Amino acid sequence: MERPQPDSMPQDLSEALKEATKEVHVQAENAEFMKNFQKGQVTQKGFKLVMASLYRIYVALEEEIERNRDNPVYAPLYFPEELHRKAALERDMAFWYGARWQEAIPYTQATRRYVRRLQDVGRRQPELLVAHAYTRYLGDLSGGQVLKKIAQKALALPSSGEGVDFFTFPNIASPTKFKQLYRSRMNSLEMTPEVRQRVLEEAKTAFLLNIQLFEELQELLSQDAEDQSPSQAPGLRRRVGSGAQDSTPMETPRGKPQLSLLSQAPLLRWVLTLSFLVATVAVGLYVM
Ligand code: HEM
C-alpha cells in the first residue's frame, strides 16, 4: 500500500524546494546588506562589491552547468539563452570597473567559498547542481527584478539598463511563465528519495552561502566606514584582497575626502591649542 506523503513534504520537487528554503529566504531578505538595499541605501562601493562577487559566482556556476549540460541530472534545466548571466556580468564589470576590470575586481573569502562549493558539486555531485541553479536563477527572476529598479534609482543609473545588465533577461518575455516552465522541468527530474533529500539540503546550503556573502560584504563596508573615522588606528584596518594573491588593497572610492592632517594627529592639535592659549595669556600680560 502506498504511504501518504506527510503535509510538510510536498510531492513536486519545485514545491519541496520552496518549502525547504522558506526560512533561509527570510534570513536572506533580512541580512543587513539586503535590508539596506531594499531601503534604497545602496552605495556605489557596495553595489560594485556585490556585482563582482556575482560575476565570480556565475562564471563558476555556468562552467559547471556546461560540464553537465548533457547529464540527465541537469539537462532538462539547460537554458543558456534565457538564463545565463556571464556575458551580462562581463558588460557590468566593464561599466563599473573600466576596461581593465579583470585585474581590478576583488575576490572575497565568502565568494571563494561559494565558488569552491559550486565546483565541488559540478564535478563530484552533479545531481545537486539543480539546487544551485534554482537558488540563483529563480531568485534573479523574482526579487532580483525589484532590486534592479532600486539600484537604478539609488545610483542614478540610466534607464537604458547600463550597469544592471545582470538583472535584465532579454530572452524571457514573461518571468512568471518562464518560472512555471522551469518548475515543471525540475519536477521532471528523476531522483531517488535519498538524492532528493540531499538536493533540498543543498538548496539551503546555497542560500547560506549567499547570506554569508552578504554578511561579509556588510562587514567590509562597515570596516570602510570605520577607516574614515579619525580614532581608527591604521594597524587595525582590515582589507579584502583583489586578484589571486589577496594582496592588492581595494580602491578608494573616487571623491572620498581624505582625512586632514589635523584630524589624524590629536597630539599636534593639542600642541597648537596650548600654544594659542600661551600666546593669548602673554598678549594679555603685555597689554596690562
Ligand atoms: C532583498 C532580498 C529579497 C527579496 C525582496 C526577495 C523577494 C522574492 C519574491 C517576491 C519572490 C517571489 C515569491 C513567489 O513568487 O512566491 C522570491 C522568490 C525567490 N527568491 Fe527571493 N528575495 C530576496 C532575496 C533572495 C536571495 C538572496 C535569494 C537567493 C540567493 C533568493 C532566492 C529566491 C528563490 C529561489 C525564489 C523562488 C522561490 C520559488 O518559487 O520556489 N531571494 N523572492
TrEMBL record:
One of its GO terms (molecular function) is heme binding. Homodimer and higher order homooligomer. Oligomerization is crucial for its stability and function in the endoplasmic reticulum. Interacts with FLVCR2; this interaction is potentiated in the presence of heme. SUPFAM superfamilies: Heme oxygenase-like. The chain crosses the membrane at residues 267-287. Belongs to the heme oxygenase family. It is found in: Endoplasmic reticulum membrane. It holds the Pfam family Heme_oxygenase. This is Heme oxygenase. It comes from Neomonachus schauinslandi. GO terms for cellular component: endoplasmic reticulum membrane. InterPro entries: Haem_Oase, Haem_Oase-like, Haem_Oase-like_multi-hlx, Haem_oxygenase_CS. The keyword Ribonucleoprotein does not apply. It comes from the Eukaryota. Its main location: endoplasmic reticulum. GO terms for biological process: heme catabolic process; heme oxidation; host-mediated suppression of viral transcription; negative regulation of viral life cycle; response to oxidative stress. Catalyzes the oxidative cleavage of heme at the alpha-methene bridge carbon, released as carbon monoxide (CO), to generate biliverdin IXalpha, while releasing the central heme iron chelate as ferrous iron. Affords protection against programmed cell death and this cytoprotective effect relies on its ability to catabolize free heme and prevent it from sensitizing cells to undergo apoptosis. The gene is HMOX1. It is an enzyme of class 1 (oxidoreductase). The lineage of its organism: Eukaryota, Metazoa, Chordata, Craniata, Vertebrata. Keywords: Endoplasmic reticulum, Heme, Iron, Membrane, Metal-binding, Oxidoreductase, Transmembrane, Transmembrane helix. It is a single-pass type IV membrane protein. Its EC number is 1.14.14.18.
